[in-house]
Structures are given as structure tokens and as C-alpha cells.
Specification:
The complex is a heterodimer of chains A (218) and B (249).
Chain A (H helix, E strand, L loop, with lengths): L6 H9 L1 H26 L4 H15 L3 H14 L6 H27 L2 H9 L4 H31 L11 H12 L2 H34 L2
Helix pairs in contact in A: 1-8, 1-9, 2-3, 2-5, 3-5, 4-5, 5-7, 6-7, 7-9, 8-9
Chain B lengths: L8 E12 L2 E12 L3 E5 L6 H8 L7 E6 L2 E2 L6 H8 E4 L11 H13 L3 H14 L15 H13 L5 E5 L7 H16 L3 E5 L3 H7 L2 E6 L2 E6 L1 H6 L4 H10 L1
Parallel strand pairs in B: 3-8, 3-9, 6-7, 7-8
Antiparallel strand pairs in B: 1-2, 1-4, 4-5, 9-10
Classes of the chains: A mainly alpha (218), B alpha/beta (249).
The structure holds adenosine-5'-triphosphate (ATP) and magnesium ion.
């Protein structure tokens, strides 16, 4: 039975924003932890850590996010875990975000001048204090803009989780469309909601980038 | 181990060889530094001056030879390098202050994290040395707000806050505008007068004449000539030393 697309449908779609946000938040939080570890491994003095983290990054950069979702989703089943879209989507997106944030943050750590590390070392600071007190605070400043930029990509990327049955913004759109068969209005609405989520973030990222490049070319 | 009775010899370097990949950067270098001795190291670009002093706190590892600093054998491995770094302060050409920390925080970081002294004591020490280098009023500013000469004096104060027994300087005035060179050199002269053991890579020959006990000339990774400033400048023995001295005058 087909009903017309109406205000209630818009509300229904709007309510699904929270699932998109929840999934983005989980992936971003998990990816921040994973990404920091990957970035530290990439910049470590231990060769096998550098190689292993490099392979991890290449793997996730070199395959489509959709395949990553599929592999985790069906892979979990093979390893005897129950099929659970929440778990699969969270895990796949966390791994994905870890790889990309790891690569972004590696660049930020390497952008801190070598003299900073040398001065800290000469003062007797060990790795942990050197990182937490000297290198990472400076790398963090450089990283804000590209990190927000990646967050936008991540939010848009969560739409692929709809394909493994995770009911977020896009999937809710599909469900509403099945009932109303007004694809243009439905997916137009969905797109507008993504835009409202992402546009302010993109704007912030661009502004921070400009401010940062000004600060560094002084 | 640090011995209770301070050894007369501050640094012993024996048959040092160092390679960067295939490039032989230090060739059979031997150097003994007495406690309180002031040494100036000069030589053409790429001769290994920086490399030499950076081996003393192991910013650069060596492949052959033996280094003993204040009775601690650096090349014996283990935690000896930590002890040596606590005893050896270093000042770089590019200052290398931590830009995200205030002047005071720059000076307090290592004493807090490495020596683990109480905060009030670290702050008192930091203010004392900032006064010593004549910029106590800049304590709450950030490095970027200071002139080059002021930044380099902060870098000296920061190193002194660890109460080192040896100070290494790698061309501390080369990145400075000419009018700021003097204020940094004056600070170093003060330090020399207090009896600090100093190794200083510099081409400031006035400074070398005024404070150095010994001038060392390096070329192609070797110590070619050494002597008192009078002998070194007045009557250089080696041909390459003479050519070099002619160039920088
Ligand atoms: N990290 C490195 N990797 C490879 N080669 C290096 C490295 N650091 C220095 N070298 C080389 O070792 C040689 C000695 O370098 P060093 O920096 O000690 O010279 P220097 O006497 O301090 O010169 P300058 O007056 O230009 O500072 C140079 O030929 C340099 O190119
Ligand atoms: Mg040098």
C-alpha cells in the first residue's frame, strides 16, 4: 500500500539522525584511540611497528569502505559471532577511522620540527614525557583542521552501514521510500539532513585551516 | 656511576668513529676535557663539529670508541645515557624552545619530569636562572614573543635549570641578527667565569680568545689541530688551519 510522502515522514527521517550521529560518534571515538596508536606506531623507532602500522593503513586506504563493512559483517559470522549490524558497523568504521586518522596524525607528528624532539631528548625527557609534553601538543594544533575534515567524511561514510541493515539516516530513507515511493522527496530530505550535519563542520575545518596557515606563515 | 669525589676529567673520548650510513663522519677522534675547561671547536662546514658534540649526550650514537662523561661510561649502555643527559646541558643554533609553553614552563619542564622536584622549587630555580640571563620579566610570555637573542638566553637558562656540570653549545649565535650576538656571548662569558665546563662550536673568534682554554680545529671528521687561543690564532701549525683562519677573517 502506498501512502503520500508527508510531514510525519520528515519527522521519521529526522529522528534517525541520532543513529547516524551515534554511529559516527562511536567510530570517531574508537578511531581516535586506534588512530593515536597507529600514528605512534608509524613514527616509532621500532621497525616492525612502523611496517605493521603501514600495512594496516594501506589495507584500509586501498579498499572501499563498503568492502570493509562487508568483510567485518560476514567475517564476524564466520568467527561464530552473531550477526549484529550495530556491532559490525561500529567495528568496521572504527577500524576505518583508525587507519585514516592514524595517517593524518602521523603527518602532524612528523610536521613538528626535529629540533623539538632533540631539545627534549637533550634535557633528559623520555619517550612518554617527550610525546605528552612536547610533541603531541604541537601536533594536535596542526591536526584540528584535517581531523574535522575527516569527521565529515566519516559521517557521510556511515550511510554505507545501511547496506548491512543498520537503521540510520539513509536506511530510514529507504524504508520510508518503500512505503511512499517518492524517492526524490525522500532522498532529497535525507541529503538535506546530511548537509545540515556536515556543512558547519566543513566550514569550521576550512576556517581553522586558514587560521593555521596564517599562524605558520608569520 | 657518579662518584662522590668529582673526577678531574670531565669528558673522555677515545678512538671515536662514527658513520652516517657509508659516510665516515668522525675519524679516530680522541679528546679529553678537564673539569671546568672551556673548549671552542671550529672548522669548515661539514667537518663534523656538530656530530662530535652531539655524541656526548648521545643525540648521535657512535659505532666505535669509548665516551666517559663525569665518570659515567656512556658507551656501556644501560641507563647510563639518562645519567649523562641529566648532567649535560645543550644549546642549539635554532634555540628549539617549546613554542606552546611559556618561558617559565620551558624552564620548568625537565626539572619537573626528569628530576621530579617539587613545583615551587622548579619555579624558584627557573626564575633564578632567568634572572641570571637577564630576562626575568619575560617569564610569562611565549617564545614567539621574544627576540632571537632573548630566546637563545632562555634556551641557556632552560639548560641550566637542570643544574648540569657540562654545557654544549652548537653555534649558539649563528642564527642571530648581528646586534643580538653580543648579549648571548656575554651570557656565555658569565657562565665561563663561574667555572662551567663548556664545549662550544662557534666561529666567534673574539669569544674564543676571551674565554677558551683550548681551541680545536676539525676538518673532514678529524681533529687536525688544537692549542691555546694564543698559539692557535698566533701560530697555526697546519696548513688547513691557516687557510680556514684566513677565510673567516
Ligand atoms: N643525519 C645525517 N645523516 C647523514 N649525514 C649526515 C647527518 N648529519 C650530518 N651528516 C653529514 O656529516 C657531516 C658532518 O656534519 P656536521 O653537521 O657534524 O658538520 P658541522 O661541522 O657541524 O657543519 P656545519 O658548520 O655546517 O654545522 C656532513 O658531511 C653532513 O652532511
Ligand atoms: Mg653544525
Amino acid at each position: 500500500m502506498i501512502r503520500p510522502f508527508g510531514f510525519n515522514d520528515i519527522i521519521l527521517i529526522a529522528e534517525a539522525i541520532r543513529w547516524t550521529l551515534a554511529l559516527s560518534a562511536i567510530a570517531f571515538a574508537g578511531g581516535a584511540v586506534g588512530g593515536l596508536l597507529i600514528a605512534l606506531a608509524r613514527t616509532s623507532d621500532t621497525r616492525w611497528l612502523r611496517t605493521a602500522s603501514m600495512l594496516f593503513i594501506r589495507l584500509f586506504q586501498g579498499t572501499p569502505l563498503l568492502m570493509q563493512l562487508f568483510l567485518v559483517f560476514f567475517g564476524m559470522n564466520i568467527f561464530g559471532l552473531p550477526i549484529n549490524p550495530w556491532l559490525a558497523a561500529s567495528l568496521a568504521l572504527t577500524l576505518h577511522a583508525s587507519a585514516f586518522l592514524g595517517e593524518i596524525w602521523r603527518g602532524c607528528i612528523e610536521a613538528v620540527p626535529l629540533g623539538q624532539r632533540e631539545a627534549a631528548t637533550a634535557l633528559g625527557l623520555h619517550y612518554y614525557d617527550r610525546m605528552t609534553s612536547v610533541i603531541l601538543p604541537q601536533a594536535a594544533r596542526i591536526s584540528v583542521a584535517p581531523t574535522v575534515g575527516f569527521l565529515v567524511q566519516l559521517i557521510k561514510g556511515t550511510s554505507l552501514a545501511s547496506i548491512i541493515g543498520f537503521t540510520e539516516l539513509t536506511r530510514t530513507g529507504q524504508i520510508v521510500n518503500n512505503a511512499t515511493f517518492s524517492p526524490f522527496q525522500v532522498f532529497g530530505t535525507v541529503a538535506v539532513f546530511y548537509f545540515i550535519l556536515c556543512w558547519p563542520l566543513s566550514l569550521t575545518a576550512r576556517r581553522m585551516e586558514i587560521r593555521f596557515s596564517r599562524a605558520t606563515t608569520r | 656511576m657518579t662518584t662522590a669525589t668529582a673526577p678531574e676529567t670531565s669528558i673522555v673520548m677515545q678512538d671515536i668513529n662514527k658513520w652516517y650510513g657509508a659516510y665516515h663522519a668522525l675519524r679516530n677522534v680522541n679528546l679529553n676535557v678537564r673539569r671546568g675547561e672551556r673548549i671552542v671547536i671550529c672548522g669548515p662546514s661539514g667537518s663534523g663539529k656538530s656530530t662530535l658534540i652531539r655524541t656526548i649526550n648521545q643525540l648521535e650514537p657512535i659505532q666505535e670508541g669509548k665516551i666517559v662523561v663525569d665518570g659515567i661510561e656512556l658507551t656501556a649502555g644501560g641507563h647510563n645515557v639518562d645519567e649523562v643527559r641529566r648532567d649535560v646541558g645543550m644549546v642549539f643554533q635554532q634555540f628549539n624552545l617549546f613554542p606552546h609553553l611559556t618561558i617559565l614552563q620551558n624552564c620548568m619542564l625537565a626539572p619537573l619530569k626528569v628530576r621530579k622536584i617539587p613545583k615551587a622549587e622548579a619555579e624558584a630555580t627557573a626564575r633564578k636562572f632567568l634572572t641570571r640571563v637577564r630576562i626575568p620579566e619575560q617569564a610569562d610570555k611565549y617564545p614567539a614573543q621574544l627576540s632571537g637573542g632573548q630566546q637563545q638566553r632562555v634556551a641557556i637558562a632552560r639548560a641550566l635549570c637542570m643544574q648540569p656540570r657540562i654545557m654544549l653549545f652548537d653555534e649558539p649565535t649563528s642564527a642571530l641578527d648581528p646586534e643580538m650576538v653580543k648579549e648571548v656571548l656575554d651570557t656565555m662569558v658569565d657562565l665561563a667565569k663561574e667555572g662551567m665546563t663548556m664545549l662550544c662550536v662557534t666561529h666567534e673568534m673574539g669569544f674564543a680568545r676571551a674565554v677558551a682554554d683550548r681551541v680545536i680545529f676539525m676538518d673532514q671528521g678529524q681533529i687536525i689541530e688544537e692549542g691555546s687561543p694564543e698559539a692557535f690564532f698566533g701560530n697555526p701549525q697546519n696548513e688547513r688551519t691557516r687557510a680556514f683562519l684566513k677565510q673567516i677573517h
